[in-house]
């Protein structure tokens, strides 16, 4: 199963600069600089009233240049992402100092900076820029470790041992009556586990993920037969959309394990994929059993998936679940990104 690869572009790509078009990164940038404003005002003040005056004065000088820097980094992000980490850091610092100098020069026509000299102002801007880059670099290293840990967690939770044993038993059950079907099932099982063991740090095309899901469902149909019904609604979903690897398959496995298997009769899983604006939406719905132990395992799997979405897309992605009228529904939203041609 070939996949078209692209760097996963999590909020902090391994070894690179943060994605300045990510909402979470921009919010952290604004928060970090404002924390520095508060710290500076505390150092310079000798009373609460003095602190408030210092904070208001410094915030008045900082906020507009800060927003200008955020806007500039947002605009040049695609160009910046193609540069090496070292060059990117130099360019970010150059942008910070250039905006700070321009703000100081423009403020000269409106009464200046309240007695703050240019060198002192640029030094403060440089300290803010360096602290910001150090913070994101530290967070990058932490996220890299978290991605590795999440991959191991996902690997253990993704395919349950019972699925492997049941699939092999199902193959043994048809190996005499339908040897070609048994051979195809073994090939599908090998393909599935080959993908599971891959280092999954890159986004893949949606059609690649869907092909993997079809292989998985074919294996489940081998043992569940007509009890497993799946209704796909993906006519309005771009197949070149990039998604985290193994995003949909664990949801289908949960739907089979927690929804279809406990039922004595046939059950239907409904999968809906569509694009809404600049977001990709995925909904998976399945019947609900009354076995509470099944629901506990489902929550653990969803927490794992929610963490993976957070690592890839930060605040721009989300996962919600609800139980209503005998059905369990999972909704996922994430930024829409198309695969390169």
UniProtKB/TrEMBL annotation:
Keywords: Kinase, Membrane, Transferase, Transmembrane, Transmembrane helix
InterPro entries, per the entry: Bact_2-comp_sensor_kinase (IPR050640), HATPase_C_sf (IPR036890), Sig_transdc_His_kin_internal (IPR010559)
Residue ranges crossing the lipid bilayer per the database entry: 25-45, 51-75, 87-106, 118-136
GO CC terms: membrane
Pfam families, sorted: His_kinase
Annotated ranges, domain Signal transduction histidine kinase internal region: 150-228
Source domain of life: Bacteria
UniProt cross-references to Gene3D superfamilies, sorted A to Z: Histidine kinase-like ATPase, C-terminal domain
The keyword Membrane belongs to this UniProt entry's keyword annotation: yes
Gene Ontology MF, one: phosphorelay sensor kinase activity
Protein name per its UniProtKB record: Sensor histidine kinase
The species this protein was found in: Pseudothauera rhizosphaerae
Lineage of the organism: Bacteria, Pseudomonadati, Pseudomonadota, Betaproteobacteria, Rhodocyclales
């Amino acid at each position: 199963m070939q996949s078209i690869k692209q760097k996963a572009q999590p909020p902090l790509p391994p070894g690179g600069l943060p994605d300045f078009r990510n909402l979470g990164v921009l919010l952290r940038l604004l928060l970090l600089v404002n924390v520095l404003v508060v710290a500076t005002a505390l150092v310079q003040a000798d009373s609460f009233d003095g602190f408030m005056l210092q904070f208001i004065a410094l915030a008045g000088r900082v906020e507009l240049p800060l927003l200008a820097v955020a806007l500039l980094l947002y605009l040049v992000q695609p160009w910046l992402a193609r540069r090496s980490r070292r060059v990117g850091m130099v360019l970010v610092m150059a942008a910070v100092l250039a905006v700070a100098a321009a703000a100081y020069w423009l403020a000269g026509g409106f009464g200046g900076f309240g007695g703050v000299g240019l060198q002192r102002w640029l030094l403060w801007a440089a300290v803010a820029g360096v602290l910001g880059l150090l913070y994101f670099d530290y967070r990058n290293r932490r996220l890299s470790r978290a991605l590795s840990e999440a991959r191991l967690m996902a690997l253990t939770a993704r395919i349950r041992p019972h699925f492997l044993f049941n699939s092999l038993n199902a193959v043994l059950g048809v190996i005499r009556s339908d040897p070609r079907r048994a051979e195809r099932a073994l090939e599908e099982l090998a393909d599935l586990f080959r993908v599971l063991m891959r280092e999954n740090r890159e986004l893949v095309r949606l059609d690649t993920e869907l092909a993997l899901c079809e292989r998985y469902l074919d294996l489940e149909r081998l043992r569940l037969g007509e009890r497993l019904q799946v209704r796909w609604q993906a006519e309005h979903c771009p197949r070149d959309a990039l998604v985290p690897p193994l995003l949909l398959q664990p949801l289908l496995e949960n739907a089979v394990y927690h929804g279809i298997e406990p039922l004595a009769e046939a059950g239907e899983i409904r999968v809906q994929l569509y694009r809404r604006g600049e977001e990709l939406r995925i909904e998976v719905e399945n019947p609900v059993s009354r076995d509470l132990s099944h629901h506990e395992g489902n929550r653990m799997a969803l927490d794992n998936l929610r963490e993976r979405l957070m690592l890839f897309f930060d605040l721009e992605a989300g996962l919600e679940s609800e139980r209503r009228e005998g059905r369990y529904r999972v909704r996922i939203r994430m930024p829409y990104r198309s695969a390169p041609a």
